[in-house]
Amino acid sequence: MAFRKKAGMMLALQPDxxxxxxxxxxxxxxxxxxxxxxxxxxxxxxxxxxxxxxxxYNGFKISLHNKYDPEIRLVAPIKVSNGxxxxxxxxxxxxxxxxxxxxxxxxxxxxxxxxDRLIKKHSTILIGDFNxxxxxxxxxxxxxxxxxxxxxxxxxxxxxxxxxFKQAQGREMHPTLYLYKHQDRPYxxxxxxxxxxxxxxxxxxxxxxxxGWMKYSDHVPIIVSFSN
Length: 228
What we know:
alpha+beta, Deoxyribonuclease I, Chain A, six-stranded mixed β-sheet, three-stranded antiparallel β-sheet, 13 strands, 31% strand
């Protein structure tokens, strides 16, 4: 929360697109003069202190797709364009305490079905906090982390972290969450999945470190870069 107090740290990474979970409402975002304001922003949520924020810089254009389903509130289909290419980005914060049938990864499962025609084998990115990992799979549940990974792979969409670092799901060597900021309670629950045309342009994947980020959040960022 209080993204305005942390924006400088994030913007030092010079992002083109920035997806922030637990992001305060834009009305609260008053950045210091030395911090660049985004070109465009989209905010979704019901709590002004904790929503889903999508910010664009360097000429990228973003807009909420007209097929957005507010029943799957915090999985947002975003149309992105930079003048050279257009693609669909799904900004994700898998968190819906009011949905007993799918509070966390269930939100992603519902989104995969609802947006099936928008999630294609090209020009597609899904990124954010999935609140999930294969280690928590429940075999009798019709949806779990593994079934979601498999469904995306069937569409030609892979986790870029696992592709880049040659890691297996559930055996990640880089945590993205330190529960209660404790270094001895690490988990990997944030992901960037992308269609293989993006994989072909992948330049690098970085995961923030505990020492540098814990004063800002219990999560560390996933930084994904592509060639033009």
